[in-house]
């Protein structure tokens, strides 16, 4: 039952998606491409690119897109969206209710402090897993990556950087096959 | 009822008009809920936001939950999340359905060939920023080990996050207060 598996996988992604969209990308990759092989690497990369470019939180956009791509049906999107909203509607709601008691909790701060290095590793792993021949097939693609890196580092809005690289892509690669 | 509609509309607007991750949205949400609607004091909003960042789940949704709850309880939180989710859902679904028709177009294909290396850069930058803010040798070692384990051995990221949390709890518990 792919719908149930998808829902459970996305629930897991939601509940362990600390730190928002970017660390979540790595978790989604792990579940959808590596474990269940529902999506290929290049389809997944395209989903991430589109989720960045369209309005709305990346995590939500990704969820809708992945749900549709895996099942080919709107109901897949409904399931993944509900799953990705579940941690917020349960855990975050509880945290808000007990806000005053949690605010200065030493143990919670300590735990979060040591989850941060793992988060850094998680995001880094997502970047490393994208380093493949499908994405970097010649020196021009490497150049696009380095230029994007510099632009994003300089705090240029990622949407403009993505749009610019799409235009570059059309100029550089529209003649080549594949 | 009017408050519920206001909450829904506020987060619908934010969902439909802002781009990027929760961090990119914070100033826009702050402007709406603190400056325009006066639902929070600024200081209080930031305190809540810190918790929204620390909890699992998308930061933007967590922000919708705490704002909605503070203004109108459980249903306030529910309509805020709904408002935030609907624009993403509709827009992405339209794109996903149409994309199958455009996928073989050579220009669309070329555009994606340009965007893929860019996506790698978009992911690498927050990673580098996070690493630069780590404290001390052991945290950097943990980050490097996590990266290697996840990327090359297929260890579950969930397990590593749990290990990180346990290390933090133990260290804090036995640290001198």
Q: Could you describe the 3D structure shown?
A:
The complex is a heterodimer of chains A (178) and B (177). Chain A is mainly α and 178 residues long. Helices cover 78% and strands 0% of the residues of chain A. In chain A, helix 8 runs antiparallel to helix 9 (158-173). The two termini of chain A are 34 Å apart. The model of chain A has no long low-confidence stretch (mean pLDDT 88). Chain B is mostly helical and 177 residues long. Chain B contains seven helices and no strands. Chain B has helices at 2-17, 22-36, 42-54, 59-102, 106-132, 136-153, 157-174. The longest helix of chain B is centred in the middle third of the chain and has 44 residues, at 59-102. Chain B starts with a helix and ends with a helix. In chain B, 46% of the residues are buried. The model of chain B has no long low-confidence stretch (mean pLDDT 87). At the A-B interface, helix 1, helix 2, helix 3, helix 4 and helix 5 of A face helix 1, helix 2, helix 3, helix 4 and helix 5 of B.
Broad shape of chain A:
globular
Regions of chain B with pLDDT < 50 over 5+ consecutive residues? none
> Secondary-structure element sequence of chain A?
HHHHHHHHH
SSE series of chain B: HHHHHHH
Helix-strand category of chain B? mainly alpha
Short note summarizing the structure:
The complex is a heterodimer of chains A (178) and B (177). Chain A is mostly helical and 178 residues long.
């Amino acid at each position: 039952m792919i719908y149930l598996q998808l829902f459970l996988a996305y629930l897991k992604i939601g509940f362990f998606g600390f730190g928002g969209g970017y660390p979540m990308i790595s978790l989604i990759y792990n579940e959808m491409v590596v474990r269940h092989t529902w999506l290929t690497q290049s389809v997944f990369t395209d989903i991430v690119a589109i989720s960045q470019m369209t309005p709305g939180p990346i995590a939500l956009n990704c969820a809708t897109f992945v749900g549709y791509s895996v099942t080919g049906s709107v109901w897949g999107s409904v399931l993944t969206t509900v799953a990705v909203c579940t941690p917020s509607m349960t855990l975050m709601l509880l945290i808000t209710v007990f806000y005053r008691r949690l605010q200065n909790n030493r143990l919670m701060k300590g735990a979060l402090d040591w989850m941060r290095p793992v988060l850094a590793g998680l995001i880094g792993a997502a970047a490393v897993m994208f380093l493949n021949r499908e994405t970097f097939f010649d020196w021009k693609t490497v150049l696009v990556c380095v230029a994007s890196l510099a632009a994003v580092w300089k705090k240029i809005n990622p949407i403009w950087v993505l749009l610019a690289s799409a235009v570059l892509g059309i100029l550089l690669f529209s003649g080549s096959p594949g | 009822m009017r408050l519920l509609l206001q909450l829904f509309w506020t987060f619908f607007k934010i969902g439909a008009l802002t781009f990027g991750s929760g961090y990119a949205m914070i100033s826009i949400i702050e402007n709406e809920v603190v400056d325009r609607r006066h639902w929070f004091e600024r200081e209080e909003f930031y305190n809540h936001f810190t918790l929204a960042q620390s909890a699992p789940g998308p930061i933007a949704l967590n922000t919708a939950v705490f704002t909605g709850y503070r203004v109108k309880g459980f249903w306030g939180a529910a309509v805020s999340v709904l408002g935030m989710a609907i624009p993403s859902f509709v827009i992405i679904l339209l794109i996903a359905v149409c994309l199958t028709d455009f996928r073989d177009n050579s220009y669309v294909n070329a555009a994606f060939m340009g965007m893929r290396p860019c996506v790698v850069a978009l992911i690498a930058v927050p990673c580098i920023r996070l690493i630069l803010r780590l404290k001390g040798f052991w945290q950097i070692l943990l980050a490097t080990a996590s990266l290697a384990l996840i990327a090359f051995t297929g260890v579950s990221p969930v397990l590593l996050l749990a290990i990180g949390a346990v290390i933090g709890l133990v260290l804090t518990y036995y640290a001198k207060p």
